[in-house]
Amino acid sequence: MGRLVVVSNRIADPRKTASGGLAVALGQALESSGGLWFGWSGKVVEDGTPGEGDLHVHQAGKVQLATVDLSREDHDSYYLGYSNGVLWPVFHYRLDLADFDAGYIGGYRRVNQMFAHKLASLLQPDDVIWVHDYHLIPLAAELRAMGCKQRMGFFLHIPLPPPLILAAVPAHDWLMRCLFAYDLVGFQSESDVAHFSRYVGTETSADILGEHEFRAYGKTLQVQAFPIGIDVDEFVELGKGRESQDMFNQMRTEYSRRRLLLGVERLDYSKGLPQRLKAFRQLLQDYPENLGSATLIQIAAPSRESVDAYAALKQELESLCGAINGDHGELDWMPVRYIHRSVARKRLPGLYRAASVALVTPLRDGMNLVAKEFIVAQDPDDPGVLVLSRFAGAAEQMKDALLVNPYDTSGTAQTMQRAMQMPLEERQRRHQALMAGIREHDVHWWRERFLNALAAIPAP
Ligand code: ADQ
Question: How many CA atoms are closer than 13 Å to the CA of 341, on its beta-carbon side?
Fold first, then answer.
């Protein structure tokens, strides 16, 4: 196979561990092929011209990193507007939060066109191009329009909604048609693949050639589920580090008389935070033996704060935490510790390990890597319990977690109670089964499966 070219909205220097498992895994593939990673630089030029941006190229080991700046107007319409104000909510089934401002889509197309132009100047004929996520759906179509014939694959990190939800996007037919410019499209779960197949069956005149093969617009497209995993060895190593150990010891000392429940995510409405807090409040009401003991540490890292829906969520969360603490707290015990910051990646395994229960209860999630990280960080002899939303992509694989419907407040409270009371033997059995699955289907397996499937497609 030729050189690998990865394209994503943001890029990371794969040599830095703070970048996380995905960057490390992609970095390894890029290193072995002497590849290129292309994306937005993160820089916004206040008085920049829409559709124009400086290209920066530098070398990180064997990998070339190429980034482009965005003008303020492009950033606001492509990134905040269309990507995060339309596609993110709709793809997470939240039509009520979508802002269908007609101006956004022009910026989205313009930036994809500009990225295609800048990228094309760096491409070699036998490159294999792997495009990531909803910001860049039309990229292959733009590259093809410029005559690029390379093999191209696309992976969607977020869910694909059912056809009638997708059809609410004014330009849905154009978006879905753009997917046919790729040779391979990967989704996180089988339910996403089923939604794609149903969309194609009901909304297009494409021929469904097989479970994974579709033909339309003069092009054949392969579609498959490639559930993303984590870099297990990297996370285990992080867990052995001093920062992680210190975190664990500090938490164990501070909460020695308490039972710790933990939530870790970006502050995002897809993650089901208000529903989770209400379920925790229900737990305290329905099972009063938890009063004075159960403590929920909720870490919610700031995210997309200039999008309106995020500011409203932040307020709702603050008020819920205040109410729960006010109603149930004691001078020596506060039921909720809410922290609106991210935790350094090196400390995360220690935090996960100190918790008796992890609450991973999104309303909808492409996969959810926190669920997998929590399991890997546990002590196999005395592991914590994972409470996982059935609406996370991870639920298709992690059947040995306690699956919940996050909209069902008392059902979720009941499951939290069950998790806290689970006998050691059952905890060990569930942990062992989950761990085996996570190890087998790690991020390297995911990357290789995708790239092998792409390589197996005959060149156009
Ligand atoms: P995200 O929505 O960001 O990702 P997720 O997969 O849970 O969700 O987390 C990504 C990473 O961020 C994890 O490694 C986690 O440790 C880290 N992280 C999250 N909150 C943090 C915090 N408060 N402090 C420190 N680190 C934090 C999108 C999709 C997911 C999909 C991933 C990968 O929405 O469904 O699993 O991409 O494909």
Answer: 6
Nearest atom of ligand 1 to the alpha carbon of 369: 6
Residues with CB under 6 A from ligand 1: 20, 157-158, 228, 264-266, 299, 301, 342-343, 348, 365-370, 373
Q: Which amino acid is at 226?
A: F
Ligand 1 centroid to residue 12 C-alpha, Å: 15
Q: How far is the CA of 456 from the centre of ligand 1 (A)?
A: 30
d(CA 83, CA 108): 8
Q: Which ligand 1 atom sits closest to the C-alpha of 266?
A: 20
330 DSSP assignment: B
- Residue where the block lists tokens 């070219």: 5
**What is the whole-number distance in angstroms between the Cα of residue 373 and the centre of ligand 1?**
10
Separation of first and last alpha carbons in the chain: 14
Q: Say how far apart CA 383 and CA 34 lie, in whole Å.
A: 41
Ligand 1, pocket-test mutation among 368, 441, 447, most atoms within 8 A of CB = 368
Burial class (CB in 10 A: 0-12, 13-18, 19+), 457: middle
Query: Strand pairing partners for 39?
Result: 67
Q: Which residues are catalytic?
A: 157, 365
Print burial letters for 134-171: b (CB count within 10 Å at least 16), e (below 16). Answer: bbbbbbbbbbbeeebebbbbbbbbbbbbebebbbebeb
Residue 266 burial (CB count, 10 A): 15
Query: Residue 19: its pLDDT value, please?
Result: 60
Residue 460's CB: how many other CB atoms inside 10 A? 12
pTM of the model: 0.97
Q: How far apart, in Å, are the Cα atoms of 121 and each of 57, 124, 139, 168? A: 12, 9, 14, 36
Q: Whose CA is nearest to atom 22 of ligand 1?
A: 342
* Spans of the chain below 50 pLDDT: none
449 CB neighbour count, 10 Å cutoff: 16
What is residue 246's predicted lDDT score, i.e. its pLDDT? 98
Taking the C-alpha atoms of residue 26 and residue 4, their distance in angstroms, rounded to an integer, is 10
Ligand 1 center to 203 CA (angstroms): 32
pLDDT of residue 18: 60
